[in-house]
Amino acid sequence: MQTVSLGIIGCGAISSVYFRNTPLFKGLRIAACADIKAEAAAKQAQAFGAPALAVDDLIASPEIDIVVNLTVPNAHYEVSMAALKANKHVFTEKPLAARAALGRRLVEAAKKRGLAIGSAPDTFLGAAGRRARTLIDAGAIGRPVTGTAFVLGHGMEHWHPNPEFFYKPGGGPVLDLGPYYITALINLLGPIARVQALTSIGEAERLVTAAGPHQGEAIKVETPTTALALLEFASGAHIVAGMSWDVWRHSAAPIEIHGTEGSLRLPDPNFFGGAVEISKRGGDWVAHDTSADPFGALNQPAAEPKVANYRVLGVADLAAAIREKRPARAGGDLALHALEAMEAILRAGAERRAIRLPPADIRPAVLPEEEAFALLA
Ligand SMILES: NC(=O)c1ccc[n+]([C@@H]2O[C@H](COP(=O)([O-])OP(=O)(O)OC[C@H]3O[C@@H](n4cnc5c(N)ncnc54)[C@H](O)[C@@H]3O)[C@@H](O)[C@H]2O)c1
């Protein structure tokens, strides 16, 4: 198998996870990194031993097969489009683009050029996401009827050194954390047909308390920090989804799906592992431990709580997809549908009406256990 060379663009907070995780996967290596801020690229180059290049030089380099776009959401389109125009395959951090219309242009450009485009989140391919999907497909809870998804917290300014983008259009909990939940739900239930929502801004300004160059600065909030959405799936299932950075403390489970025969409870879809719990017809919850499954073992012991974090799994699947001439599981079409759903939530909130999504026949192929193991080095 030929080694696939990745070029990382965007050497900020999340990039270290990509540098650390790439060697976990068979046939992947990071050949270069770049950032609009040369010093950010130089720092990661030094820490992880991949050469730092100028952004344009990385995109033009014949050595790079896949550009991995880890820039801020508002730069996703520009960087991914430049890479596609240079005939590179692309994997981008979420969201696919700051707006669905731009995401659609990326997906179309990739198709026109015969290139692959994929996007985070890839967490639904983790041990818990696969186990939940297998249980649903096997009819363990019967026909899914209703459910809840909640991602609630108090924002990013207490830990992220450069949190401004989270509070501008393209950020906010819907586009920043929504992708994990919406994508997990599409993986389990199929495409979304229509959404309704109420949105609000809890506080007009946020104070940066995280250590770093912006500590003490105020950020003007320009995007909703709370959204309560109703998601109507094409299958007929209905989900209540709450996404908020106006919540100090809560006790809502990340995702619960209720079917005609029972209920399913999923762990945090921002990560790859955790127990999937199932209750049959009101019986006690029975936990399915996924820690021995591929991408289920807790590999970030420094995190609290300890987590399974196998980001780059989607890149590994994209590289395999290119080789095998099949669609990538964390592919552009899925990311575009999720983005259309998130944008519809924000529009539904702003316009106070239900929004129908463009019809989509989207549900990623299951990642079987043996294929998942085969991606590992
Ligand atoms: N931080 C996290 O925990 C986390 C987790 C999952 C996903 N993400 C996603 O990863 C992406 C990056 O987030 P982050 O937290 O690393 O942000 P960050 O601000 O720490 O880093 C982004 C980097 O991109 C660079 N950049 C911006 N515009 C650029 C351009 N046009 N060309 C080249 N470089 C450019 C910036 O200089 C910066 O170094 C976002 O889409 C975010 O949603 C972040």
Features:
377 residues; Rossmann fold; 11 helices; globular; binds nicotinamide-adenine-dinucleotide
Mean pLDDT, as a whole number? 97
- The main sheet orders its strands as 15-14-13-12-6-11-10-7-16
| H-E order | EHEHHEHEHEHEHHEEEEEEEEEHHEH
Portion in beta strands:
15-25%
How many β-strand stretches? 16
Largest sheet: 9 strands, mixed
pLDDT < 50 stretches: none
CATH superfamily of the largest domain: Dihydrodipicolinate Reductase, domain 2
* Form type: globular
Structural class: alpha/beta
CATH hierarchy, class of the largest domain = Alpha Beta
> What value does the Rg take, in angstroms?
20 Å
The unique ligands bound to this protein are: nicotinamide-adenine-dinucleotide
Q: What's the structural domain tally? A: 2
Q: Enumerate how many helices there are, as a single number.
A: 11
CATH second-level architecture of the largest domain? 2-Layer Sandwich
CATH topology of the largest domain: Dihydrodipicolinate Reductase, domain 2
Tell me the span between the first and last alpha carbons: 12 Å
